Structure to design on (176 residues):
């Protein structure tokens, strides 16, 4: 597995368990890239859905991917604060084409006051049966939902008070 270079623009590819593409983010600037961690930033990037529809993100975002955790976190910077969208997913891999992960449906939306909602449990259950997620995946994902909730409550990792601000400032240096 390669490592993306700081300052490089990469695509992000999200897949489903059955191997089908789910969503592609056209460009994200790598702010930190190691074997274990990729932090990226983007703003008004084109997103392509599996059915070919496209849309453009509305606000700057800082993305957190880790090779040891079954989730990734997107911090969206809005006028009234940072909103986080957390995807329960496989750990990322990076090849010369893109940063890639498998999206496992469950999401946690976190508000600026650090309250949160677990989303898409019905979609997860439907896809778990349709795509026959192995029992071990189900166990790993449920464990990682609890880990993510602990991180949110403890303000750990990407939820730390200055995390998004620090990385957004770094992102702005690449846009000038």
């Amino acid at each position: 597995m390669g490592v993306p270079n700081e300052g490089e623009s990469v695509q992000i590819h999200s897949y489903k368990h059955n191997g089908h593409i789910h969503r592609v983010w056209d460009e994200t600037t790598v702010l930190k890239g190691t074997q274990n961690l990729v932090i990226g930033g983007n703003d008004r990037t084109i997103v392509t859905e599996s059915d070919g529809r496209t849309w453009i993100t509305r606000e700057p975002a800082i993305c957190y991917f880790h090779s040891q955790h079954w989730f990734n976190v997107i911090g969206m910077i809005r006028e009234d604060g940072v909103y986080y969208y957390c995807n329960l997913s496989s750990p990322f891999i990076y090849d010369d084409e893109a940063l890639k992960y498998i999206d496992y449906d469950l999401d946690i939306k976190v508000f600026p006051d650090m309250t949160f909602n677990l989303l898409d449990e019905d979609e997860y259950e439907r896809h778990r049966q349709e795509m026959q997620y192995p029992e071990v995946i189900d166990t790993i994902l449920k464990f990682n939902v609890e880990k993510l909730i602990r991180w949110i409550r403890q303000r750990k990792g990407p939820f730390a008070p200055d995390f998004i601000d620090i990385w957004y400032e770094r992102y702005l240096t690449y846009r000038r």
Q: What stands out?
A: Residues 30 and 114 are 26 Å apart (CA to CA). The first strand starts at residue 9 and ends at 15. Residues 135-154 form the longest helix (20 residues).
